[in-house]
Amino acid sequence: MLQDHQLHAAELERTFIAIKPDGVQRGLIAEIISRFERKGFKLVAIKIVVPSKEFAEKHYYDLKERPFFNGLCDFLSSGPVIAMVWEGEGVIKYGRKLIGATDPQKSEPGTIRGDLAVVVGRNIIHGSDGPETAKDEIALWFTSSELVSYTSNAEKWIYGVN
Ligand code: IDP
Ligand code: MG
Prior knowledge:
The chain has 162 residues and is of the alpha+beta class. It is built from eight helices and four strands, in the order βααβααβααβαα. It has helices at residues 21-25, 29-39, 53-59, 69-76, 91-99, 112-116, 131-141, 155-159; strands at 14-19, 42-49, 81-87, 125-127. Helix 3 packs across helix 4 (69-76). It is globular and about 50 Å long. It starts with 13 loop residues before the first strand and ends with a helix. The chain binds inosine-5'-diphosphate and magnesium ion (MG). Inosine-5'-diphosphate is lined by residues 63, 68, 72, 102, 120-121, 123, 126, 129. Residues 63, 68, 72, 102, 120-121, 123, 126, 129 line the site of inosine-5'-diphosphate.
């Protein structure tokens, strides 16, 4: 029988999720965290930080040619951001589903952006878009000692392994 600490040892998928300054200022921290937590994903790192403009530019490096890049980086560095790492089976792809489409007008009701945001420039949350991005973003925002590995009591009920 698997011991608790061996549960899912082979499939610890992680993603980087950030509540942007608009989500923080609008008092949506608990609402957003709660959606990931209730789903059954596990929080393994969290901090509140005001990123510098340079840091924001690194985070959004892939978008540097886009016309909104400068405004986007100004915005991300305009106030506190909640930076998090969430862990669980399929968390990268399903995290994006929980978040909804980039443009809240196109996000389905029931998604975070669909329920809680209106325009693309203030869409309250960021989530890694694939395994490589997740790896890079986690490494950019967190040191390895800030990532906490633990077994939650709920895991055997969420995954049905015992
Ligand atoms: P994503 O956040 O859904 O992954 P990306 O295409 O990676 O979307 O864009 C990053 C962020 O840039 C978006 O979340 C949004 O805040 C902003 N953004 C994307 N497209 C536009 C746009 O057309 N105008 C203004 N801001 C945009
Ligand atoms: Mg993106």
